[in-house]
Amino acid sequence: MRRKYEKMRLFIEKGTKEDNARNKYKYLSTRFPFRGKENIDIFVIAMVKGVKGKRRSELKGREGFIRFNSIDQKSMNLIKGLAVSEAGSLTVLSDPEKVFQIAEEYANTGIHLLLEEFRGKDLVGEMEDAMIDTQKRRAPLKTE
Predict the structure, then answer these.
(1) Which of 42, 59, 71, 52 minimizes the C-alpha distance to 105?
(2) How many domains does the chain divide into?
(3) pLDDT digit string (tens) for 24-43?
(4) 6: closest CA among 99, 96, 83?
């Protein structure tokens, strides 16, 4: 079964030079909490975000993004699990293209949802503000 997947890639939407999925992944990879994460990690998070939003969208133009040998076992298990859940049968696992297509379509929606959620936000600043507000609501510490 593994051999069927070995020459495969996960694809993302190609888009235009200015507006394409590769740039969106690159942007997120430089922002907290995605800084330093591998593309596969962000892809899986985008895929889960798409599943959570119950939306998947077909790719309009495809661009190879992640090679099979870059996909860790946990990520592959999530991708396959999603395909089985979506198809309602284990037989989908015998069609690697279908397995990847399902993941790609959810990630295609999810990457847009992630950008909406994180673009322009200063999450560290927001966390600091939340901590300061929490401290203000607490009773002052007694020094004696």
Answers:
(1) 59
(2) 1
(3) 888 888 887 888 889 999 99
(4) 96
